[in-house]
Amino acid sequence: MNGIRGYSAWRWIFILEGLLTCVVAIAFFWLIPEFPEEAKWLTEEERTYVKERLQKDQGRSAAERQIRFKDVAAVFKDFKIFVGGFMYFVHSVPPWAAAFGFAMLIAYFSDKARHRFLFAIFSICVSITGFAILISVNNRHNLQYGALFLVTTGTYGAMPILVCWFNLNLGGHHRRAVGTAWQIGFGNIGGIIATYAFLVTDAPLYRRGYGICIGFICLSAASCVVYFVSVLVQNRNRDRSPRDLNLTEFEKTEKGDMSPDYRYLL
Prior knowledge:
mainly alpha
C-alpha cells in the first residue's frame, strides 16, 4: 500500500489498525452487556454466580442508579485515582512487540497469590533493565536484541497487572466507571510523548528517547509504591477502627471502596 493516497506503507498500518478498532468498538457497544445479570448467553445460575463473585471481590455495584456528575466529582476527591493514572501512564508508549507468554504467566501467578504490587514492580524492573542496556550499549546487536525482549516482557507484563489492580480496588459501579476511564484516558496520553521521544536527530543511539522511557517507567514504579503504601495504610487503619458504624447496605454501596468494611487488594 506504499504510495496509495500519497501515504507511506507505515502510515497505512496505523490507519487500518485505528479503523478496525473503531468498527469493533461500535459493534461491541451493543454486544457487551453492562452487567453480568444482563448477559443473555449465561444461564440464570451462571449469572447469579458471577454477580455474587463480583460482589464478594468488589462490593455492591450500585448499578440500579444512574451515575451523576457529583459521583464523578466525588471519585476525584480520592488521591489514589490520580496515582492510578500515573501507574499506567508510561505503559502506553513501549516498543511495539508484546511478550504475551510472560504477561499471561505473571497474570496467572499474581491472581493465584491474590497480590499485585510485587509482580508489577518485578515486571517494571525487567523493563528498566532492558532500557538500561539499550541506552548504554552500541554496535552489539545480539545483546541489544536480547534487551528488546526484556523491555517488552517487562512492559507488557506490568500493564495488565496495573490496570486490573487499580480497577479491582475501585468498589462500586460509579467509582469503577470513573476511575477506569481516568486511568486509561490519562495513561494513553503517553502516545503523544512517544511521537517526540525518538527523533531522527538523536540517531543512531537515541539516548534521549531511552532516557525518557526509563524516566517514565521509574515514575510508574514510584506511583506503584505510593499506591501500595496508601492502600496498605488504609487497610490497617480500617482493621483498627470499629467496623459497625450503623451504615445501611445502601450507604455502604454508595461509598464503594471508601466504605469502612472494604479491604483493598495489595
